[in-house]
Amino acid sequence: QVQLVESGGGLVQAGDSLRLSCTATGLTFSSYTMAWFRQTPGKERVFVAGVNTWKNRSAFYADSMAGHFITYRDDAKNTIYLYIDNLKLEDTAVYYCAADESGGSQSRYGGDYDYWGQGTQVTVSS
Questions:
Q1: Would you give the DSSP letter of residue 66?
Q2: Which of 2, 33, 75, 96 could form a disulfide with 105 if both were Cys (CB 3.0 to 4.6 A apart)?
Q3: What gap in Å lies between CA 76 and CA 92, rounded to an integer?
Q4: Could you give the CA distance from residue 37 to residue 62 in angstroms, rounded to a whole number?
Q5: pLDDT digits 0-9 by tens, 39-81
Q6: pLDDT at 3 over 90
Q7: What residues have CB less than 8 Å from 83, skipping those under 6 apart?
Q8: What is the rounded average pLDDT for all residues in the chain?
Q9: pLDDT, tens digit, 9 for 90 and up, residues 9-22
């Protein structure tokens, strides 16, 4: 049984930094493209960042997210991380990690992902 478990969310102040984690079990983690999405109430889930399985484990970002987020993976720990720098009020959302069995993918489309975590809430206060 595949499980993705996010952690690291919480209530933070604008300007703070935060690192989210997502640990996967039940799959061959190193073979999967891993990604982060986020969702705010009443809106669709949107892609934030991902890391595929290419040799250099290159990250890819939504155009509006680059520079504000950093994602990387540790295959030895079956974990992907999302570092958010200089948090803004508009970063308030539930953050989800997702796994795509197409390891070479750089998809930004949620429908391409096979497994999802339950999400972790990030709330940014002023």
A1: B
A2: 33
A3: 30
A4: 10
A5: 998 999 999 999 999 877 789 999 877 789 999 999 999 999 9
A6: yes
A7: 17, 18, 19, 20, 69, 70, 71
A8: 95
A9: 999 999 999 999 99
Looking at residue 108, its amino acid is R
Where do we find the tokens 């989800």?
96
State which amino acid sits at residue 28.
T
Contact predicate 93/38, CB 8 Å? yes
The full length of the chain comes to 126
Tokens of 16: 């703070």
Q: Is 103 helix (H, G, I), strand (E, B) or coil?
A: coil
- ∠ Cα 43 117 73 (to 5°): 110
Task: Using the predicted structure, report yes or no on whether residue 111 has a pLDDT greater than 80.
Answer: yes
